[in-house]
């Protein structure tokens, strides 16, 4: 099996120096090769190590107001800039091994965000550090500082009082696909599309967030990526079957799951093992067979999982009782195409009739936001259908060493637990 290309943080034995609260050191030869492969270049490391914010770079410049997120890798706080009063989100960067310095995966996230300035992508304002009394002597904590958004989509959908119209759904999907197109156009894969990673501002503008697993699309032929990415419930069949030469289609699948969730208000396929997830996908999208997806036979785990046979595709049948709009169903159907080569791009999705038939999408969903008087996040609203969300969280920390994918267990459908199937 090929090794995934994801990388560990730096080598603790390398010489270190302090600069501006960041640990700076010359990368080892081995690290330099890895950095080059992952596009985290020495000048970028140097830039981060010497980063001087024009107006603030110590976390004490912010007054922490409330915890709004507990991701897999750390906490996110709502905070206020003591000087300007501006509301921000502080995302703490978890240092798995503090001696390793600023984690290379966080550098990756910073680099992606710097490349991705766009109306529908979360805005990185600053990086700041702190030296708390509790932390080991001289070791800083690091935070990414973002423009604060009032809600995430998982939190919004958890709130039953919030009624979405077709116009709202069209507008949100248009924003989502526009942001995704921008990401893919910049040769980046998001790799963690899910409702909790989608923010909505109080002005009703959607922003794609959490670039902790994002990475550049390599132009190098035969470059291999780890397939242990994307939260299980939103993970496309090619990743579940071990593909490690995937592309933008993995994010498109997630967009399809999220679009359906705008109606179901809960993730549509909540498997708790890879085998179950594949079975749920087959139940909805039909059997995973070479007739609909010729290349599937060459995927590493095609023979290792039990793939249910003779199942018809039932997207319109099963979603039809919840989604009345035929164009919406048709678009979900396309986004959730089993064969990644036929799944289409974000740009193609934006051209779909769904967006060009009445009622038309609007500029934003500000009218929807006007009726919501408190911030709604997955973390704060973890009740009702979203209470169990953590089960589907992604499987590995982005700061730690990437694990080589475990070969799938030979589960049989007969011995698996009850399925979590939220539509039917
Ligand atoms: N800019 C922001 N404004 C408001 N809340 C945010 C912001 N960024 C993240 N959050 C909240 O924090 C949660 C975790 O942040 P995220 O970037 O997804 O980190 P993780 O990698 O730990 O999942 C998000 O699901 C969201 O609820
Ligand atoms: Mg997240």
From TrEMBL:
Keywords: ATP-binding, Kinase, Nucleotide-binding, Nucleus, Serine/threonine-protein kinase, Transferase. It is found in: Nucleus. Residues 62-355 form the Protein kinase domain. Residues 1-27, 382-416 are annotated as: Disordered. Pfam families: Pkinase. PROSITE patterns: PROTEIN_KINASE_ATP, PROTEIN_KINASE_DOM, PROTEIN_KINASE_ST. Residues 14-26 have a biased composition (Polar residues). The keyword Ribonucleoprotein does not apply. InterPro entries: CDK, Kinase-like_dom_sf, Prot_kinase_dom, Protein_kinase_ATP_BS, Ser/Thr_kinase_AS. GO terms for molecular function: ATP binding; cyclin-dependent protein serine/threonine kinase activity; RNA polymerase II CTD heptapeptide repeat kinase activity. One of its GO terms (cellular component) is nucleus. ATP binds at residue 91. The keyword Nucleotide-binding applies. It catalyses: L-threonyl-[protein] + ATP = O-phospho-L-threonyl-[protein] + ADP + H(+); L-seryl-[protein] + ATP = O-phospho-L-seryl-[protein] + ADP + H(+). Its main location: nucleus. Gene3D superfamilies: Phosphorylase Kinase, domain 1, Transferase(Phosphotransferase) domain 1. Residues 382-396 have a biased composition (Basic and acidic residues). Belongs to the protein kinase superfamily. CMGC Ser/Thr protein kinase family. CDC2/CDKX subfamily. This is Protein kinase domain-containing protein. It comes from Pristionchus entomophagus.
């Amino acid at each position: 099996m090929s090794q995934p290309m994801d990388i560990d943080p730096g080598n603790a034995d390398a010489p270190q120096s302090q600069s501006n609260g960041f640990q700076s050191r010359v990368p080892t030869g081995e690290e330099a090769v890895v950095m080059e492969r992952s596009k985290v270049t020495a000048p970028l490391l140097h830039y981060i190590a010497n980063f001087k914010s024009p107006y603030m770079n110590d976390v004490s410049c912010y007054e922490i107001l409330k915890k709004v997120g507990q991701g897999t890798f750390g906490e996110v706080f709502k905070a206020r800039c003591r000087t300007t009063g501006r509301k921000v989100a502080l995302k703490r960067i978890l240092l798995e091994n503090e001696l390793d310095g600023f984690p290379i995966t966080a550098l990756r996230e910073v680099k992606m965000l710097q490349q991705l300035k766009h109306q529908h992508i979360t805005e990185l304002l600053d990086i700041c550090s702190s030296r708390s009394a509790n932390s080991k002597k001289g070791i800083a904590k690091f935070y990414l500082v973002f423009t604060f958004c009032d809600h995430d989509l998982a939190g919004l959908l958890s709130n039953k009082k919030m009624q979405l119209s077709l116009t709202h759904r069209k507008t949100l999907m248009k924003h989502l696909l526009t942001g995704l197109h921008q990401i893919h156009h910049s040769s980046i894969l998001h790799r963690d599309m899910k409702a909790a990673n989608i923010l909505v501002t109080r002005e009703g503008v959607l922003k794609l967030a959490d670039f902790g697993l994002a990475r550049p699309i390599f132009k190098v032929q035969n470059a291999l990526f780890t397939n242990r990415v994307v939260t299980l419930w939103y993970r496309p069949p090619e990743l579940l079957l071990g593909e490690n030469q995937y592309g933008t289609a993995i994010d498109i699948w997630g967009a399809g799951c999220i679009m359906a969730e705008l109606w179901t208000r809960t993730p549509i396929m909540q498997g708790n093992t890879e085998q179950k997830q594949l079975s749920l996908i087959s139940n909805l999208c039909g059997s995973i067979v070479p007739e609909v997806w010729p290349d599937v036979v060459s995927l590493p785990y095609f023979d290792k999982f039990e793939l249910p046979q003779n199942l018809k595709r039932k997207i319109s049948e099963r979603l039809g009782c919840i989604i009345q709009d035929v164009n919406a169903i048709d678009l979900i159907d396309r986004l959730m195409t089993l064969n990644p080569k036929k799944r289409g791009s974000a740009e193609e999705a934006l051209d779909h009739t769904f967006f060009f038939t009445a009622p038309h999408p609007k500029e934003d969903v500000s009218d929807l936001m006007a009726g919501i008087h408190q911030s709604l996040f997955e973390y704060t609203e973890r009740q009702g259908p979203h209470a169990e969300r953590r089960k589907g969280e992604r499987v590995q920390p982005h700061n730690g060493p990437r694990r080589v994918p475990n070969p799938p267990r030979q589960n049989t459908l007969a011995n698996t637990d009850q399925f979590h199937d939220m539509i039917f």
